Amino acid sequence: MKIISLLASLFFYCSLSFGVDKISSKQFKLEKVYKGEGVLWSFDFLDENNILLAFRSGKLLRYNTKEKKVHEVAFLDVANRDQGGLLDLAVKDNQVFATFSEPLKMGRSTTSLARATFDKNFKVSPFKRVFQSKAIETAAHHFGSRLLFVGDDLYMTVGDRGQRDKAQDQSTHHGTILKLDKKFAPTVYSYGHRNPQGIDIDPVSKSIYEVEFGPRGGDEINKIKKGSNYGWPIVTHGKEYYGPKIGVTHKDGMVDPVEYWGPSISPSALHFYRGDKIKEWQNKAFLACLSGRQIRMLEIKEGRVVKQSIVFSDLARRVRDIQTGPDGYFYFSTDNGLLYRVSKN
Predict the structure, then answer these.
(1) Which of 123, 238, 285, 298 is the most exposed place for a label (fewest CB within 10 A)?
(2) What is the set of domains in the chain, with CATH numbers?
(3) Rounded to whole angstroms, what are the CA distances from 295 to 229, 263, 311, 319?
(4) What is the pLDDT of residues 185-208, one digit of tens each?
């Protein structure tokens, strides 16, 4: 029986990998822009020369690429254990937004949002928490969390915090994508998510896409529609870590994923490249992958993934975040504190 199970798993893996190109880093110019210590969970740009670097420990730095100098910005009080810490960054006008796992009384924590402002000299004000989600638990995993601005609308992803059934309860914020208004009042925009750690808008179709961690297999990319239920834990292609199935793979009234992956690739970020330094990559979707130790490039047409490519797996890095710089370059960060800038050779 073990041999049959092994052969089935091998066939499953091969069927998912068939037709997926591998793109070597040797085709590109990779520059190590910055090397720090710890998980470089997210980064964003103040301008072409100044990058904000958020480490999961709670440390936020500003790095000037022209002067090659590091400036300490803040150290946020975060629940820095297991998967918790300082999470995503988003710069909007002269404001900096950050999601983080907020420590609460009695060992509890939740996913929260803080805001600061910066002046013309890039001096950043103290961060103040502006929103606290209802996903309050003693567990220290499945916080989410990524941010997306679409115009003035702010979307924030929140994980199920390990309480899977609550992802079907719209009175909580477990397993949701929230839309926050100008006063940071939340609306549950979509629900039934497990641990969404990537969200971006397709610059061509203007559709919002999200990626999330499944359990054992079942990582997903979803096309997000207002008010929709994405099924977790009733619908999933993943399994329990000890083997059994979870739920079903389809149910009427719940939205199927655009694509799913098993074995897992652990997609920790989603970004559509909008730069001009690698023209053949323009408007394609990129997934930062942890367990896959790669970047996964997706070509999406009419809501379908029509082609996949594995990028930079030869670096063997756990990739954490991806952004297009204001200079048009492709940037990505890793779990060992590296920030890379990519262009064509």
Answers:
(1) 123
(2) 42-282 (2.120.10.30)
(3) 28, 15, 5, 7
(4) 999 999 999 999 999 999 999 999
